[in-house]
Automatic annotation (TrEMBL):
Family, as annotated: Belongs to the alkylbase DNA glycosidase AlkA family.
GO molecular function, one term: alkylated DNA binding
Enzyme class: hydrolase
EC number: 3.2.2.21
This protein's name: DNA-3-methyladenine glycosylase II
Keyword S-adenosyl-L-methionine in annotation: no
Reaction(s) this enzyme catalyzes, per UniProt: Hydrolysis of alkylated DNA, releasing 3-methyladenine, 3-methylguanine, 7-methylguanine and 7-methyladenine
UniProtKB keywords: DNA damage, DNA repair
Keyword Glycosyltransferase: no
GO cellular component, one term: protein-DNA complex
Originating species: Gluconacetobacter takamatsuzukensis
Gene Ontology biological-process annotations: base-excision repair, AP site formation; DNA alkylation repair
InterPro entries listed in its UniProt record: Alkylbase_DNA_Glycosylase/TA, Alkylbase_DNA_glycsylse_CS, DNA_glycosylase, HhH-GPD_domain
Domain HhH-GPD: 54-209
Amino acid sequence: MTSAALSPARDRAIRARLSAADPDLAALVARIGPCGLRVEADRSPYEALVNAIAHQQLHGRAALAILGRLVALAGGSFPTPEALLALSEADLRGCGLSGTKIRAIQGVAQARLDGLVPSRQDAASMTDEDLIARLTALRGVGRWTVEMLLIFSLGRPDVMPVDDFGVREGWRAIKRLDTQPRPAALAAIARDWSPHRSAAAWYLWRAAEEAKATAGQYVR
């Protein structure tokens, strides 16, 4: 899988824009340094959706283990929609997938064969909201799942996943708030970060990680 980093020019533009938008965000950007957001440049929307479904409500390592078993079951490469649909439910459960997730990824595979899930080439001509509207019609695919596809697979630069716990926790941490902002409130705040809201989300995830690590220092 080819992972593409941001160009130096884009990184500079991102940091300048976010730093100008808010002093606490500026401090976070200065502390973290260059934006490490990377895009899986050759991952198809179909594969991205299956990956995202596998990750739902699981720790990242657990989801990667499930996906690794799925790839092994398919002969060492990510299963095509046809190959995935040919696997039995017992095989998929053996990978660690729940019944709900099995039905969801089978639905994604069938939707790819039916043309509802677009290729990367077709997705390039669609807006973020068009893709969200189309793909959230699928079983088990919510707005957050499509937003992760937009950011990490299609490289869309201006996506703010306000329902994401880590993003809201990151904002709570840098603002030293007692509670996380509501999604609608964070969406309003994030308008000032356009057209670099995907990068802003990446920085807020780092802030959430910092807050968790700091809290852990006091847990004995």
